[in-house]
User: Fold these one by one.
Assistant:
Number 1:
Amino acid sequence: MSQILNADLHCHSVVSDGTLTPEELAARAHANGVELWALTDHDEIGGQQRAMAAARAHGMPYLTGTEVSITFAGQTVHIVGLGFDATDERMKQGLRATRGGRSERAQEMSAGLAAVGIHGAYEGALRYVGNPELISRTHFARFLVESGVCQDTGEVFRRFLTEGKPGFVPHRWATLRDAVTWITDAGGVAIIAHPARYNFTPTEEYALFSEFKAHGGRAVEVVTGSHTAAEYVKYADMAHEFELAASRGSDFHSPDESHTDLGALPYLPGKLTPVWELLANRIHR
Ligand code: AMP
Ligand code: MN
Ligand code: MN
Ligand code: MN
């Protein structure tokens, strides 16, 4: 398979912080011309069987997927896993442990918001949650928009949910080593998600890429909904430098919130190894 493939290997359903079901996403991806699809819910693979069955019903090739939250150099980083065995016990256990602290963290976030006069945010956010183990900042953001505190979710994150703001609670997720090992030991490929989104110094970013590679990580997202055209070029260069394959995914969450639709990204730039070349024998048809 070549570079020129409408692969969309990153999106979210109601099983994490998206607003569409796995079936609705499959239909939307298919309608938008996606030729290879993966559902990558945060820290959760509970939607994989539904996504795979729906993809098959559309005749759309499918890779299993997830997006694991890790902590690296004091920041939250996301590692996408593709093409793993979704019944792997160690991976399921690792993801369960990663989800474990979310309820408590959400209660603390709510207390932080109450201190600045926003009451009932935990209960409010819960109304948007599809999976009780996966209450996320996104659900708080939806509640604060609906209750008129902010105009859109971007404003909620800026004013309330990022480092130093009243609803932000520092959290320790999985380690880089664990996430990469769970994915690779289950037969999948680990991928650094949207690298331009982190606020690392060049030295920290170099450390992330080197350690990721040393643990067995094999790819990086180059074309994603959260990169600019200049960032496609920068991370294509990084992929070359670290001999990593390249991935492509919209990170679609919701028709109302996501600015990049499923299947609507530019193709991967030339001369990169597409991650789907590493995963040819893991594709479900
Ligand atoms: P959590 O896993 O609970 O920390 O929530 C992280 C999620 O919040 C991400 O996966 C995004 O969906 C969303 N998010 C993070 N930053 C922003 C932002 N600046 N604007 C909108 N959504 C964001
Ligand atoms: Mn998300
Ligand atoms: Mn992410
Ligand atoms: Mn994502």
Note: The chain has a mean pLDDT of 97.
Number 2:
Amino acid sequence: MEMTFRWYGANEEKIKLEDIRQIPGCKGIVGTLMDIPVGEVWPKERIKALKEEIEAAGLTLKVIESVNIHEDIKMGVPTHDKWIENYKTTIRNLAEYGIEVICYNFMPVFDWLKTDLDFKLPDGSSTLSFVSSDMPTSPEALIQNMEAGADGFSLPGWEPERLSQFKEVFAFYKNVTDDDLRANFKYFMEAIIPTCEEVGVKMACHPDDPPYSVFGLPRMVKNREDLDWMCNAVDSPYNGITLCTGSIAEDPANDVVAIVAEFTKRNRIPFAHVRNIKFTNVAAKDFYEAPHLSSEGSLDMYAIMQALHDNGFDGYIRPDHGRMIWGETGRPGYGLYDRALGLSYLNGLWEALEKK
Ligand code: CS2
Ligand code: MN
């Protein structure tokens, strides 16, 4: 396994590559180009500059999170072919600079969502939480909440250009079923996986967060059966999963450890997000994003790391969202300190597993 840390870019946040470099055992950056509008080709010069900047700081760039999917591809409208061609060009451009994994998601309209981006824990730290009874009744209100809670940062997957046409898009999805969405996914994968195989870039789909339908929108990456369907839709190791333990676990019916074990064994996890959540009400699926440590949340992090380890995981891994601690401010979920603690903890678990 290779330990990494997500970084949004020098113009997008105050965390420095030099800070990340000082986290023991952190080898690589999970990078992005936040300012490229969804669907546009990622220019080679920009990828090259990003790679050089990261390597100058003594880190590697092998994983991109995310190259977002144009809504037309998810909707399956005729204009999708143009965006798919662009996506293929982006894959080729990334491959030229040594990128091995592209993380993305296939959620209609919204990326991840929470009802509180500044939920205070008794120790004085703050985290992200979801309380079903606090879910706004309209998508407009939800967008307002997310933007108001973001502290001036653009949230990943909540890019303004993506949300600007959301009313029309939302209306369109009224007639799209989960199976239609699956068909659109398959069409996309059949088009791009030959390119991925040719240039050696693995696609890694992030699960839906939350892993159930919101506002009646279709969803297709919610549980073991969905992941199984996805992998079989185009049966290639280049059609893989970003196994995000925190997202999968939000549905208490999902057996996270069994899912990690199965898909690691099937060689379909090129990238893992490993984090904990704490249920506050299991029946309502209410939770907050807990510190990574098992004792702080509802997940057995040792068992998760063991499922990766014992089934031969050799992909990239990163801690996922962290709390805001020690007075830090920044993009919700993406402070430096708590994610660094999470990373160290995961490294500790891994060392124990290696020596066992
Ligand atoms: C998620 C997503 O893991 C995460 O941070 O909350 O924003 C994730 O980056 C995307 O869904 C992947 O495309
Ligand atoms: Mn994740």
Note: The chain has a mean pLDDT of 95.
Number 3:
Amino acid sequence: MIQVKDLNVDSLQCTITFVYEDQQTDSNILEKMKAKKVFEGKSGQIFYRTTNDLNYEIFVGLGKYEEVERNDFVNAIAKAMKQAEKLNVDNIGIYFIKVNGLCTGATTKAIVEGVKLAGYKFNKYNKGKESYNPYVTILGAPKEKAEKMVEKITEASNVIDGVILARDLVNEPANILYPETLAERAALAGKESGFEVEILDKNEIEALGMKAFLEVAKGSIHEPKLIVMRYMGNPKNNEKIGLVGKGLTFDTGGYSLKPSTSMDTMKSDMGGAAAVIGTMQALAKNKVQNNVIAVVAACENAISGGSYKPGDIIGSMAGKNIEVLNTDAEGRLTLVDAITYIIEKENVEKIVDVATLTGAVLVALGTEITGVISNNDDFYDELLVAGKRSGEKFWRLPNDKCFKKLYKGDFAELKNTGGRNAGTITAGMFIEEFVQDKPWLHLDIAGTSWTDNGNDCTPKGGTGAPVKTLYELVVKHVCKHSK
Ligand code: BES
Ligand code: MN
Ligand code: ZN
């Protein structure tokens, strides 16, 4: 629970104050600490003490005013919250501070994000680890902005709940979360927040002709589900944006089996699905006035006597034939049928697909930048604007036609892999063959949707990326106050 108010500080158990290295404060104690170099407000520095009333004061350094970026501020908040958690306080005041380039609304959103994400834990199966949800009051905010800030707190809180839902879904193991239970979780989110969820079973998927999707699914005892989510926030307008999330609830690699060291995190291969479900929840809770359709072709890539095999030639909903050279390049097979479905049956104008698609994107961009392939410069620019607002990072890779020869088929129109070279690009361009020239963004989140190390905002596991950006991309309103 987060509120904006000017309270008597004595009623709080703890206050958090942000300090710039290169700015004077009006606090004697802070200036003394700076002079004595006990605490100088450097980036990453933290200091706390008890006051005479036996409450705590936490000071967090931000570094130099001009150098602080949005994410640095969020991380500083999270760092302070981790300290507050250790001090076991549950009634905290955070002093509002001006951050370079952020308007009051954006600063408020950043505070909500830092506070809520620092408290997140996936503790369903580890009851000793309690999540931390203290009572937080934002102090010293500009009075005339208070009302607006309350609105922003609600909006940001709903978005972060979407991030948290995505994390929870990714962290859930594959023995609990399989296509049917993933669909149930989506249906629950829809019911609680206000979007429609339709779940299509194997027979219905067959009737639609989603042959590529069915091939990937056929080795598993868990039947595939096509999860269709509809949110019509502006029913008078018939323009719809389409989100497609990769929903492999587990990826063994199939007969092109993964080595066990790269299989243990493959419960996270539905990170794209988790992100689109989290985004739909955030949009619906905030009653955003846009129309969005999200589709997840949920299945498991498993081995059995009935699995698809390397060398198989398979069909697809779009009618193109595909030679399966590697059963571990399964994501694109499920995605292209989901894309054909969302274009032909849901009539979307634009498409964003989100997928843990290639290990190659980790090699190219690491764990903090999502790789992008797009057929449309304007749509990509919109993504960059959304990313600036959300603090999530993106980088576009070229979809030059010189790559086409790598995945054009010998025995069928297409091959499902283009080999090791340019793996993220050929995977994206394979999908592009199915988007029918609609404005399209492909987000390869294999590096960004999971963290092994974690930080103050994100424990090991699902990160919830890129829910915040997808939300901003749909909302698309530009804040006139920010610099
Ligand atoms: N789900 C994996 C990609 C992945 C790798 C996600 C690491 C998260 C972390 C995907 O299905 C896959 O196996 N891709 C192959 C493609 C290759 C066979 C062309 C890969 O990246 O090795
Ligand atoms: Mn795979
Ligand atoms: Zn996969």
Note: Residues 375 and 432 are 8 Å apart (CA to CA).
Number 4:
Amino acid sequence: MIYFDNASTTKVYPEVAEIITKYNVEKFFNPSSLYLPAINVKKDLLNAKEEIKKCLGANQQSQIIFLSSATEANNLALFGLCKKGKKILVSQGEHASVFNTANELLNLGFDVDFIKIKSDGKLDIDDLKSKINNDVGLISFMNVSNETGAINNIKEISNLIKTISPETIIHCDGVQAFCKIYPDLKNTNVDAYTISSHKIHGPKGVGALWLKPNLKPKPQIWGGGQENGLRSGTENTAGIMGFVTAAKKMFENMKNNYIYIENLRKNFIELLKIKCNDWEINGSADENLPHILSISFKGIKGETLLHMLEEKEIFVSTGSACNSKHIGNRVLQSMGKLKTQMEGNIRISFSETNTLKETEIVVEEISKCVHKLRELNY
Ligand code: PLP
């Protein structure tokens, strides 16, 4: 099997699987209980928050709220931080967990507007400038696009926003960026940042929302007051400890992984240039995460290609897995891509566990399939 769909989810590291078992079997105590083994688990959770802050380059005084997914973190950020009577701005390139939440707020009567993205997948700064003012209470844009890997410079953009409107709260979805590039949050004007465990070899069902000190979103789940009252429910201790174990390993190897994956991508593109014609990369030429490669092949259907590759036990995606039931691709559409470019799209996403040999095999198989489909005029 060759797995090239790491932006969708990743395989859990063996040491992560071990930690999960440990916290389910030996250290299974409820962190809110009052006896020593439970208090020790509580301490482990607090230490886990400090470790995650290090990976984010965040101040110690800032907050980490653990919850069930990045989707929940994005919901808490948008629902919990929007202000009555103030406008909400959201980029058109967002993942469904932000985009659909913004649409729900719109349905509920909030004043929501969408910021354009450019043909390279990055935020359209001119459109942002034309829409940002003191009436905007909350803005949400992503650090790295899950569709194309296009990187938004969160330092520059957050500085720009606060210069124009100092009171606007800035939320960034950092799911595809976390432990792949360094957000250095303490040197940005970002107020809230979302991350997810299962994109970095941690378990599914764990996410976190980082918040600046003193920023208190309105809770969306009420109960026993865990996570400083911001997210009730007994903590998923095993999942959280698995998440932080994965994050520490990814963070330690971040630079090396980046260089390694950059090389995989380069190799993939160079081979594809030799083997196949009439295709183009969707994304930014200057600021793009190497881990994500979105390609449109002329005259074929990406989904057909995906299933032909599946027969060879090669797994890729046609874009965000959360979008797979939708017709067309909302993000590529926002980038101004034609219907044929959207239809002919596949997303390859690498991890450091992939090899150069795998890129050679996949390019070879893709080329064969594309030629076959074109011959059949499929
Ligand atoms: N945001 C982005 C950019 C994503 O890529 C994803 C998952 O694909 C999510 C949010 C949702 O993450 P989760 O599966 O943890 O809810």
Note: Residues 69-71, 95, 97, 142, 146, 173, 175-176, 196, 207, 320, 322 surround pyridoxal-5'-phosphate (CB under 6 Å).
